[in-house]
TrEMBL record:
InterPro entries: FAD-bd, FAD/NAD-bd_sf, RIFMO-like. Its cofactor is FAD. Residues 26-362 form the FAD-binding domain. The keyword Cell wall biogenesis/degradation does not apply. The keyword Flavoprotein applies. Keywords: FAD, Flavoprotein. This is FAD-dependent oxidoreductase. Pfam families: FAD_binding_3.
Amino acid sequence: MPTTYNNPVYPYRRPPELDREGVRHCPVVIVGAGPTGLAMAIDLAQQGIASVVLDDNNTVSVGSRAICFAKRTLEILDRLGCAKPMVDKGVTWQRGRVFFQEREVYDFDLLPEEGHRMPAFINLQQYYFEEYLVDRADALSDLIDLRWLHKVTEVASHPERSEVMVSTEDGDYRLSCDYLLVADGANSKIRDMLGLESKGQVFQDRFLIADVIMKADFPTERWFWFDPPFHPNQSVLLHRQPDNVWRIDFQLGWDADPEEEKKEENIRPRVQAMLGEDVEFELEWASVYTFRCRKMDDYIHQRVFFMGDAAHQVSPFGARGANGALQSTENLAWKLARVLKGEAHEALLATYNDERQHGAAENILNSTRATDFITPKSRVSRLFRDSVLELAERYPFARRLVNSGRLSMPCHYDDSPLNGHETEGLPLELRPGSPAKDAPIGLAGRRAWLLNQLGDRFTLLLDGRVDSARAETLRAELEPLLARQDDLDLLVVGPAPHALTELPRSRQIEDVENLVGERYGLTAGVAYLIRPDQHVSARWHEIKAADVEAALDRTLGRHLNAEEARHATA
């Protein structure tokens, strides 16, 4: 098949451990240099934590695989220094259309409001995504030891450390580490070595992915067909990618023969029937897949942490796989960094499992519902689906029932044990446990973005538009707090009195389009405590240093006494 992309080949390097005695100990070893493992290594490096990354391959993924990257994922990658090449190369989109048989029933807009740096979605082949991550990891090589063609063959998990045996063309060596992070994919070998399971449901249907190269005048939108005339009784999805590549996803049915369906002579008639006889195209990549929705009951096994597809797996409907994986890495990285630096209790790490089990369950629920709607398995469910689609053409209420893959949305950790003080009268979307929202700002006389001022550290976002007397009171409250809390920055929405802008680690921003105030419900004195992963920890109408400190102690596990700490890590 022709291709528009030449996979880079990364060099193998002889490991120094072969030329020294003893077992080298590392803070962190990461297994898997795919998107999850690389994003984790980059996030840790930005927070001062070194890692060794092991991968048994020496290139990026073959075929485009994941292609849809959501706004929240792009915001995470922007913090990691990887978003710009993705947005520059990717195809930006925010509109979708839903078709039933021969007609369009409705369309939708995923980001109808202005004032966001990142688009609702981009489409980008996974091999580009991985290449940009490798480039960023290489730029952080003083803290990321990225090793290609290093295969983990044995794992030993202990309460205080983990050990791995690594095989290379020059021989085998051992590493021990404080924490072993596993991102070796859905069929995780490490999970098998430890006798652990990922449980869930296999869906009895087959789908054909065909990535075709063609010049077409279709708009840059997501098009989804139910029961189209060119592929009756099944579904079809169309997406545009860079380099004139288009993703077409055909539902085939459970009885389809995967080997036969992958043959080009069988793919071409399907694509031609969809596009029309006069459209010329080349087939770049094709795959037939059956998918699962499943997850591990616990992502933590002593000092081994599972991430990405190794921990949880969903169907491709809704683009929740890669997007969910990146939300997992940002959740774990800041916690692990602070534990390794001695700034947080080890019990904090258990909340990775608490919060991301919630995220995975949400993704699996949406993915399962989408699959059930797209592939009805009974006459009654088919009748329900078709009736909903008929109604959706005329009645907006029915459109909420159509499920062609509810697209990935940021996760809100509503029941997280880390959530601090909540106050009434502030926007529900930014309740504790929620990801922060972006908005344009002014910073030192230039235009900037709010989210670029958040991340990697704790931030107290304060509406500093108060009178001088109130500013002096706030200064007296906050100055000792900032002196005690080295990991806390102050971001003041101004114009604010000098009493606030001259505080240690304080920066003033201007609400140039009044969108920060609107989205955060700001009035004078309102404050948000935001975690290093850009999630809201607590918020107040009127802050007191003791309340902020209590929220920080809760988030970092400092409030636990010795007995509670032992229970939390058990």
